[in-house]
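Protein Entry — a single chain follows
Fields — amino acid sequence, structure tokens
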Amino acid sequence: MPEEKILTVDFAQRDACSEILPRSPLLSSYDANWDGVRLDHHRQPGYETPEHYCQQHIITISLDQSVHKTERVFNGRLQSERIGYGDVVILPVNTNHLSRWELEAEFLVISLEPALFTRAAFEAGDLQSFEIVPRYAAPDPLIQQIGLALQSELKSDGMGSRIYIESLTTTLCIHLLKHYSVSNETITTYSQAQGLSQLKLRKAISYIQENLEQDLTLAEISAVVGMSMYHFSRLFKQSTGFAPHQYVMNCRIEKAKKLLTRTEQTIDQICQQVGFQNQSHFTNVFRKLMGTTPRVYREKVKI
């Protein structure tokens, strides 16, 4: 009898999940074209996946409210698991894997391109060699929060803010490199306790203010001051008290407030001028930061 061929799954392809799971995802970021990262939200019946390798690093996050039993095989090693809400599984690239479970399961799948880790390691310090290791199901609150934040961003408007997605992805990569790598070397960091220099801070803020209507990215802003995304994010937050994506959102809302107060432009026109991809996302962020909608805000300030 011929040996069964082990599948190779490429999450850069739209229907990658269909090769190893019976149902299509409930939600996927595939069409959002996020750079190097993909999120899929699944609800799958009891099932046994075929044996497979993945061309990306895969992270699964359980959304099940009740604990259920699973069996998982990493590179021929079988382990029984009891998986509950928030438990995280890490499947490194090219790891031989299969899993089986009896009850319906709900979970998030994050797939990350290996190139992201190479870039993150280079930007964070001189990490000569590393290897992400497989991890059976166990809690990791930070990874859980990142997964839920990516899901929330995808649900908000179907696309997500590029700078926020980049920030989450960078944080995830560094976390995995620090805590789930077999390398013994330490990721070095800048020693500046006071954040960015005044010159670099002014350059970054000026660039943000001058380009609020654009879909700003962390890579673009950090390049303006000649720094890696990782170090720029750290030092910018030390300088301002805000992560770059939070600062950008605050600037957009402040500009929107001025336009709502001083002009007769429609809310949709203002939305475009301050860099939101659609009016729904603009309204949601405005309400979150101001406690009211743009329309109600305009009515109040013009009384």
